[in-house]
Design brief:
278 residues, alpha/beta, TIM Barrel, eight-stranded mixed beta sheet, two-stranded parallel sheet, 10 strands, 15% strand
Length: 278
């Protein structure tokens, strides 16, 4: 399917050099690189990045995601310290941390999120932290490890509507809702957040149902963006959603009860997060 002009974004590699040097010097991964995010040069120019912890290899193989799949290597025990150092060098006031899914780990890697948050806070209590976590198999103890570390925002993405969950191999829609519900139960004051990728074949009424389901969990924020096929090996784009439709979904999400909504072609879960979560 031919991309319309509004779904084409140029990546300017020269704008990325400073941030690239910090990340490569500490041997850190970002979802910006791994997921081939179209916003990478814009964010790197601003000196921001979304850190990808627990290595660069995911134990699941979602059809929409470009992150490397396979058998993960050894966990870097210095990763939390390195992320905190990168946050310091980049002078970040708001850090976003996500991870590959690690079904091979007993707690799904929840401990690593807690370690990173602590490491950042050991350097400065002024830095705000947002985490975007995998589903941890919806194990309450794992979710509690992350929530108890007190990030400002706890995010978990449902990604798409239930009828299209074949693109999320190993995931379960109800389980994802449960993750958000448990986080809110553990700490009702914590801001929770989710995200949807549009253009995979979802229907309008299905999207509205997801809005309602998320709000019932207590979810506060939602990000809605356009799915872009990383390469021919991944799920095809079924539709390029028009900008005015994203505006309509934004209004519908607010009506459903969300406290904050980001909706547009280039919106991603962590895109510009520091501007509306502070």
């Amino acid at each position: 399917m031919r991309k319309p002009d509004y779904a084409i974004k140029k990546i300017d590699f020269k704008d990325m050099r400073g941030t690239e040097e910090v990340l490569s010097g500490l041997n850190l991964h970002t979802v910006c690189h791994q997921a081939r995010c179209p916003n990478i040069s814009e964010c790197f120019k601003r000196g921001t990045a979304t850190f990808l912890i627990l290595g660069d290899t995911c134990t699941r193989s979602c059809a929409f995601c470009n992150v490397k799949k396979g058998k993960p290597g050894e966990y870097d025990r210095d990763e939390a310290v390195k992320v905190a150092e990168a946050v310091s060098r980049l002078n970040l006031k708001y850090a976003v941390i996500t991870s590959v899914t690690r079904d091979d780990m007993e707690d799904g890697g929840a401990f690593a999120f807690a370690e990173v948050i602590k490491s950042i806070r050991d350097r400065s209590t002024e830095i705000k932290v947002e985490v975007l976590v995998p589903d941890f198999q919806a194990v309450r103890g794992s979710i509690k490890k992350v929530v108890d570390a007190k990030p400002e925002v706890f995010a978990h993405n449902v990604e798409t509507v239930p009828s299209l969950y074949k693109v999320r191999k190993g995931a379960d829609y109800e389980r994802s809702l449960k993750v958000l519900k448990i986080a809110k139960e553990i700490d009702p004051a914590m801001t929770t957040k989710s995200a949807l990728l549009m253009g995979l074949g979802e229907k309008e009424d299905e999207v509205l149902q997801v809005f309602g389901d998320l709000v019932k969990t207590g979810c506060d924020y939602i990000s809605i963006g356009q799915y872009l096929q990383p390469d021919k090996e991944h799920a095809e784009v079924a539709e390029y959603v028009k900008p005015e439709k994203f505006d309509w979904y934004k209004g519908a999400a607010y009506k459903a009860g969300f406290k904050h909504v980001e909706s547009g072609t280039w919106v991603r879960s962590s895109y510009m997060a520091e501007t509306y979560n502070i």
